[in-house]
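re: ur question from earlier - yeah i can do the single chain one, its not a big deal. heres the input i used so u can compare w yours
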Amino acid sequence: MLFRSLDYEGDPGVMGKNLGDDLAEGKTTLPLIRAMAAGSEEQAEILRSAILGKDVARLPEVVAIIRQTDALDYARAKAEFFRDSALGALDGLHGGAFGTNLRAIAQSAAARSA
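and the output i got, formated as tokens:
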């Protein structure tokens, strides 16, 4: 999934996963990519080191950088853009279960909390 802010701000009880799981697996998600691009070289190096080292102990520092660089807002905006693009592509579909289900998937993917 393109927008993976849940790893940095979600509720573990709702999500069914712990905060920092993506970082612990070394996954480079859009919020991290944006934070590395928008932050200082020092911040980018901290993020690179945490990702490559799969260093979940640095999660508070990583989250602080993500917030300082507005990377979550950027990732949300991208998710909404792609949701809207998907919904626009579905405009040609007439009613029916397939169109309804595809629209629901597009809506829920951008708004998911778990």
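Helices lie at 6-9, 12-15, 21-24, 30-38, 41-52, 59-68, 71-89, 97-111. not sure if urs matches, ping me
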